[in-house]
Amino acid sequence: MSILDKTAAISIETAEEETSAAFKRRFMLRMIIVLTGGMFLDGYILGIVGPVSGKMTADLAISPFWEGLIAAGALFGILIGSPLGGWAGDKYGRKPLFMMDMALFLLSSMMQLFVGAVQFFVDSPMQLFIVRLLMGIAIGAEYSVGWPLMSEFAPARLRGRLMGLTLIAWYAGFMIAFIVGYLLNEYTDLGWRLILGTSTLISVALFLGRLGMPESPRWLWNQGRTEQARAIANRYLESSADTADMEHEGSHQKGSFGMLFSRRYWRATLFVSGFWFCAVTPYFAIATFADSVLQKYGLGGGLAGGVGLSAVALAGSVTTVLLIEKCGRRTLTAPPQWIATVLLAVLGLWAGAPAMVVLALFLTFSFFNAGYGTLTSIYPGEVFPTEIRGIGTGFAAAVSRVGAGLGTFLLPWSMTNLGTSGTMLIAAGIAGVGAALSQWLAPETKGKSLSETAAGFSH
């Protein structure tokens, strides 16, 4: 056999290997690790501030106003990064944004290393708030590119579970951050500044693991680059049915921000944004300050209380992921929200409840809230079409972070001025609005192709 024949044979063998089922499974595993890693980092950055908030407040003489603002700083950063990332992802492609996002993560890692080294010189609440804000901006783009990528590569039969895994990673990151922060705070001589900087290690590992991902074939198809789309689809998508569904979309329409509020898609925008807002606002407020909230009720707080809320939340998210392809989306969306509303209302109205009853109510709320909260990682990638999937996800993420930021920012003030009962009743009202909205608009997308789920609100 000649050298040319051998080279041709090797090329054919390589091509066959790179389109094999095993190759596609390895790619999906990498995709899952890449995307869940970003969400883990998000949860970690947002959760690490809780255990050190006491020392941080005392060291810098922080008022309740600045305590809430610093805790919400990363959330406000996400508010900036997510809509810009969604716009860029739909206009310039998922892959360029993913590469830019990796660069932002690297920059964020260096900033966090810088912060870890020089936060000893951070001597004002404003400086610390700016640092947390910059960290959040790098996270924001992750929402608007990560979930669209996952939805556009995942097979319909597993899409809900795979996208739900990202929320499991978020809750795991939040819980582990609380554990790490608590242990370092209580049993080492590290200051709160370096404890906040521990997220640097995760950022570096994430950057190294996120290189070389392909462009979304659905985005390429929407741009009219059909041959490239077919080539990537044949190489990475699980079955020919996934490729056929991509071609079924048939549209080469360019997306715009205004399309979110058009007659065709305003319901999708209202549902995803409103549902997400109402799901995260009570959770962020309560979970970020779990220790101080539980102490207001006469409980010891500490590691058991804070980790307990996060661990139960993680269990709720895992339960939803396990049931999502059996029970469907809608069943796991509206009913749990009504339950969470009742639980928060009981906390607000039963002022003299025994401590153990209060703890049980908080833990039960955390379980159900995380359960339906997992759908916030699934619905955005399904109900928006390819041309506005990034913009829609980014906009909804921004709206949700308004709620999360306000909840985290206002909770210290509310606990001081309105008391625990008033604070819990406000949280119950927010959860109730989300339940009513989901009862009205939540679609069932189980087992449907992306072209079908995106068309659901347009009829």
From TrEMBL:
Q: Which UniProt keywords apply?
A: Membrane, Transmembrane, Transmembrane helix, Transport
Q: Which domain of life is it from?
A: Bacteria
Task: Check the record and name the Pfam families matching this protein.
Answer: Sugar_tr
GO terms for cellular component: membrane
**Its membrane topology, per UniProt?**
Multi-pass membrane protein
Alphabetized InterPro entries for the sequence:
MFS_dom (IPR020846), MFS_sugar_transport-like (IPR005828), MFS_trans_sf (IPR036259), Myo-inositol_Transporter (IPR050814), Sugar_transporter_CS (IPR005829)
* Chain ranges of the Major facilitator superfamily (MFS) profile domain: 31-446
Q: Membrane as a keyword? A: yes
The signal peptide, as residue positions, is none
Transmembrane residues, as ranges? Answer: 27-49, 69-90, 102-122, 128-150, 162-184, 190-209, 268-290, 302-324, 336-368, 388-411, 423-442
Classify the main location: membrane
Cellular compartments annotated: Membrane
- State if Transport is listed as a keyword: yes
State one molecular function term (GO).
transmembrane transporter activity
Q: Which PANTHER family does the record cross-reference, listed alphabetically? A: PROTON MYO-INOSITOL COTRANSPORTER
The similarity comment for this entry is:
Belongs to the major facilitator superfamily. Sugar transporter (TC 2.A.1.1) family.
Q: What is this protein called?
A: Putative MFS transporter
Q: What's the source species for this entry?
A: Rhizobium paranaense
* Organismal lineage: Bacteria, Pseudomonadati, Pseudomonadota, Alphaproteobacteria, Hyphomicrobiales
